[in-house]
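ok so I'm stuck.
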Amino acid sequence: MTLPLGIVSHLLAKDKGRNVSLWTILGLIPLVNYFCILYFMGASNLRLEKKVDYLLRQQDKAQ
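replied:
not stuck anymore, here's the structure
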């Protein structure tokens, strides 16, 4: 049961721009992995936030 949750943690961390190795290891630890998955369900996507911030800065410069 821990292997699928570890894989899901790895994929979610990669998708959301988090530390992949750390979250993969945490996803493989029994009981902790359930909290990791719950955390990722509500966590923001850091890569998207950086893109939005960049676009907002560009828009401010254009005005």
